[in-house]
Prior knowledge:
There is one protein chain. By secondary structure, the protein is of the alpha/beta class. The chain has a single domain (about 1-300), classed as Alpha/Beta hydrolase fold, catalytic domain (Rossmann fold). It is built from 11 helices and 8 strands. Strands 1-2-4-3-5-6-7-8 form an 8-stranded mixed sheet, sandwiched between helices.
Amino acid sequence: MEIATxxxxxxxxxxxxxxxxxxxxxxxxxGIDGFFDIPYTGEGEEEHLLDVYFPQGTTSKLPTIVDxxxxxxxxxxxxxxxxxxxxxxxxxxTIVNINYTLAPIATIDVQIRDIFAAFRWIDENADEFFIxxxxxxxxxDSAGGHLASLATVIMSDRPDLELLxxxxxxxxxxxxxxxxxxxxxLDIILNNKIFVAKKYAEFILGKDFENSPYKKSVSMRDLxxxxxxxxxxxxxxxxxxxxxxxxxxxxxxxxxxxPHLYRRMGRVKGKHLTxxxxxxxxxxxxxxxxxxxxxxxxxxxxx
Length: 303
């Protein structure tokens, strides 16, 4: 299984190299202020830091978006999504952009506990950071889309899941959520017998993943029925390599009568609208259209 570890490590190192090259050519949206690297729990470890962004001149609370970055549960940090979050802030929102502990250092239950610790920080510090607790929204992309949807299900009056994951609901509810190219059904990995998938499953759920108490409580197809999650804005594209997961999520939302809007982008001549394109390239016209549509969707669900 060392070969599988090498394959996964090399893949994410290659991804990191490409991300650094991309970010070096980009400039964040002007007119945004923020507070950076705020510890939300612990002793200020990097994985437990968050940023808060808002339009310059902000003096009062704004509707707020909490963002969970992607990276296959084992790569990335809040900096990857900073330019995307700056754009969302320019739409009249306060943005909370969070880190969390990555696999294989942390299994998915630890990641969920990190995310709920960030929610608790938001609950306790909203007044100091222009956060309107009456109008909070949640976004996530790729693995972050999975973590965002899982967190939302846990918050949907599911004390069994709160107990299983060792978390408590914060003192606010999400009015709506935005999910970009999410990896919603981990059973695709957990039930795959290919050696690389088995190693990935170990990273996410631990060495004895087959007997993990979380195995049946991580995939949306196992969890979404009987819940009362908020309205969902869902986006994917024809060139998203896991677009079938968003297609399946849209069918689940339809089946369980969850209000939602699914934006499935087609192919665009001369441009590749790849996995999480609107996060990677927030200045593209197609990304602006999608991100504007998502924030408009949120505004329609404000109090």
